[in-house]
Amino acid sequence: MPKNTVNRKIEFDYAHRLGNRYKFKCRHNHGHRGVVEVALSYESKNNLDMGIDFAEIKRRVGQWIDDAWDHGTLAAPEDQEYINFLQSENNKLYIMTLGLPTAENMARELFYITKVLMEDTGLVVDKIRFYETPNGFVDCEGLTSEEESLLESSLRSSLLQYKDMIGALEYHV
Predict the structure, then answer these.
(1) Residues with catalytic annotation?
(2) H/E element, 104
(3) CA gap 26, 106 in Å, rounded
(4) If 70 and its partner were Cys, which of 29, 66, 137, 163 is the partner (CB 3.0–4.6 Å)?
(5) CB burial class (10 A; 0-12, 13-18, 19+) of residue 16?
(6) What is the pLDDT of residue 58?
(7) Which domains does the chain have, with CATH numbers?
(8) Looking at per-residue confidence, does 22 or 96 come out higher?
(9) DSSP for 108-169?
(10) 127: left (phi over 0), alpha (psi -120 to 50) or beta
């Protein structure tokens, strides 16, 4: 049976810094207009004659990005001074599981997050394309077993709670 792919673009704004290990200007706090392209594959259409409604991808993945990352700061877990400052100022903060908030790590975490948020749809995450700038992007098409295990132990429970909170979308056909 042929494989079909449905794609959804999601845009958001965020801040981060890569810290002193990084010797160029990205070591300083700065912001980006991030763009994520979520690619999900399926083999058979649902009862609405489609893989999934684009709005459902936005409702699950887009809303999670909006709640966790949009207009917030992403920080490395070891950047404790930065984290403490952001918390003292009541800033929206997401502490990365995979380390520095690089485009590569953000794409990897989002691959896992999307996988969990969409796992009951029958769709498979094919790829997360993450644009950090209009001309620079990374593609993530899977995770190592070590990354999967770390993300599973750190994020799965909260993602399932999030999924329960947003509930299921009922289609009337």
Answers:
(1) 26, 71, 132
(2) helix 103-118
(3) 15
(4) 66
(5) buried
(6) 95
(7) 4-166 (3.30.479.10)
(8) 96
(9) HHHHHHHHHHHTTTT-EEEEEEEEEETTEEEEE----HHHHHHHHHHHHHHHHHHHHHH-PP
(10) beta
Q: What is the pLDDT of residue 76?
A: 95
Rounded to 10 degrees, what is the CA torsion of 160, 43, 62, 93? Answer: 50
Q: Helices H, strands E: what count in the chain?
A: 5, 6
Of the candidates 40, 156, 4, 21, the residue with the CA atom closest to the CA atom of residue 101: 21
Q: Confidence class of residue 126 from pLDDT cuts 50, 70 and 90?
A: very high
Token couple for 37: 């392209």
CB 48 within 8 A of CB 173: yes
Specify the amino acid at residue 122: G
Residue 7 φ then ψ, to 5°: -125, 145
- Phi, psi (5° rounding) for residue 99? 115, -140
Answering whether pTM is above 0.70, one says: yes
Contact status, residue 109 vs residue 151, Cβ threshold 8 Å? yes
